[in-house]
Amino acid sequence: METNFSLQDKVIIVTGGTGILGGAFVEGIAAAGGIVGILGRNEKVANERASAIQQKGGRALALIADVTNEAQLEVACQQMLSTFGKIDGLVNAAGGNIPDAVVQPNQDVFELNIGALQEVVQLNLFGTVLPTQVFGKAIKDNGSGSIVNISSITSLITITKVLGYSMAKSAIESYTKWFAIELANRYGDTIRMNAIAPGFFLTEQNRTLLTNPDGSLTERGNLIIKNTPYKRFGSPEELNGALVWLLSDASKFVTGTTITVDGGFTIFGGV
Description:
By secondary structure, this protein is α/β, with parallel strands linked by helices. It has helices at residues 20-31, 43-55, 70-84, 114-142, 163-187, 207-210, 219-226, 240-247; strands at residues 11-15, 35-40, 60-64, 89-92, 145-150, 191-198, 258-261.
């Protein structure tokens, strides 16, 4: 059983590996014995995280690339293959929101910032599809592997203000199911795709929506805590159990599934 849950010597790419959730994923994979490709645009953070893993005896490589730039992703893929010879898994953790795509209560819903909405969809949806196209080929050539997309509870229930983000994550849900079936039809049980839908975790993208400059909760932050049975935000490392399971051989018969990690938010009726 312990062997099934191990990621020992599995080579796994984490997009968004320089972010808050991505950083937890990188550490979780390394702790489970995996070899990590830390992909992101922040070269300094990527190198620091790779170095920290190496100092603990693990193996990691910083990969500097934009997930919406196919040419940069191709270069990163070749760097990983040249260094470690294979790719066993991919975590599509890059994503987020931008202020101009947030729809405020006093805003005219017939005067939406279409450009900002398109930018958020491009980052979250195609920032998942493109890395899958590039790194997925290497996983296919390896003969087996697992791809994990990061969805959101905004794809499961309606969350006000974050229209573009909600649309993009809903599309990722559809993509995960569609692509999982196509992988199965073509390659049997060798390549899997699943998703994780996190609840509310404080990140750089949502911090100003949920907390004030002094660290206290905004009205929105208080509403979230009130409607979360656990009465707190999640800690990034609390996503790692689901992630390691989906990347490991322990979930070999699981595909097209979304695991919700939200402290009970989506199942709570408020009473």
